[in-house]
């Protein structure tokens, strides 16, 4: 028979290179966005967030860019390290916290 | 203590069994969440408790029954599950319902329904 499964987008980068992970969100009313990192066997871990009144926010080695016109979010990781290998999810929500949705996720593999 | 703990780590149950998943946090958080995560998919919100009251139920089947006995504990009672309910069940907590950026996740319970 035929098997149907979800294809998790994957990204492979060399250690030391920069990584860019993209996310398209669906709700134009969403005004708060979060990036999470999920390592194998663990729950998601908060990385960085951004509010809709901003288009860029920087953290330690990470930058999030928000383009509200095309409903697109990206996570840039500078000087990617093996410990960055994980699945990365974006999440969108309304400020009330009453609606909260994770995006599809991207599996990042860092090649030493 | 900045940790959310979940027990058991793994659970195998038959379709006629009754079991419970447990979640605990001692960070003084007043919002607690249950998520379901299938393999290679994002977590899906199931239930949210705020100040020990059920705040959000994302149209979850009644075979899943949440309970918040006190501000530190969150249970998920399981009864008459189906094989398609097999998944990783994640618990999370945050200071308040709207503080999602402060949401701490537990490691999850890997559930298999036979």
Percentage of residues in DSSP E strands of chain B:
over 45%
Number of helices of chain A: 0
How does the overall form of chain B come out from the CA principal axes? globular
Query: What portion of residues of chain B is helical?
Result: under 10%
Query: Rg of chain B from C-alpha positions?
Result: 13 Å
**Radius of gyration of chain A, taken over Cα atoms and rounded to an integer in Å:** 14 Å
Terminal Cα span of chain A: 38 Å
Structural class of chain A: mainly beta
- Element-level helix/strand string of chain B: EEEEEEEEEEE
> Total number of β-strand segments of chain B?
11
Find the biggest chain interface: A-B, 26 and 23 residues
Question: Span from first to last CA of chain B?
Answer: 36 Å
- How many individual helices of chain B? 0
Mean pLDDT of chain A, rounded to whole units?
A: 88
What order do the helices and strands come in, and which of them pair?
The complex is a heterodimer of chains A (112) and B (114).
Chain A: E1 10-14, E2 19-24, E3 32-38, E4 45-51, E5 56-58, E6 62-67, E7 72-77, E8 86-93, E9 100-102, E10 106-111
Parallel strand pairs in A: 1-10
Antiparallel strand pairs in A: 2-7, 3-4, 3-8, 5-6, 6-7, 8-9, 8-10
Chain B: E1 4-7, E2 10-13, E3 18-25, E4 31-37, E5 44-50, E6 53-57, E7 64-70, E8 73-79, E9 87-94, E10 104-105, E11 109-113
Parallel strand pairs in B: 2-11
Antiparallel strand pairs in B: 1-3, 3-8, 4-5, 4-9, 5-6, 7-8, 9-10, 9-11
Description:
The complex is a heterodimer of chains A (112) and B (114). With 112 residues, chain A is mainly β. Chain A has strands at 10-14, 19-24, 32-38, 45-51, 56-58, 62-67, 72-77, 86-93, 100-102, 106-111. In chain A, the strands form two sheets. In chain A, strands 1, 3, 4, 8, 9 and 10 form a six-stranded mixed beta sheet that branches. By secondary structure, chain B is mainly β. Chain B contains no helices and eleven strands. Chain B has strands spanning 4-7, 10-13, 18-25, 31-37, 44-50, 53-57, 64-70, 73-79, 87-94, 104-105, 109-113. In chain B, the strands form two sheets. In chain B, strands 2, 4, 5, 6, 9, 10 and 11 form a seven-stranded mixed beta sheet that branches. A four-stranded antiparallel beta sheet of chain B has the order 1-3-8-7, with no helix packed on it. In chain B, 35% of the residues are buried. Chain A binds chain B through residues 5-8, 32, 34, 41-46, 49, 89, 91, 93, 95-98, 100-105, and chain B through 4, 31, 40-45, 55-56, 90, 92, 97-103, 105-108.
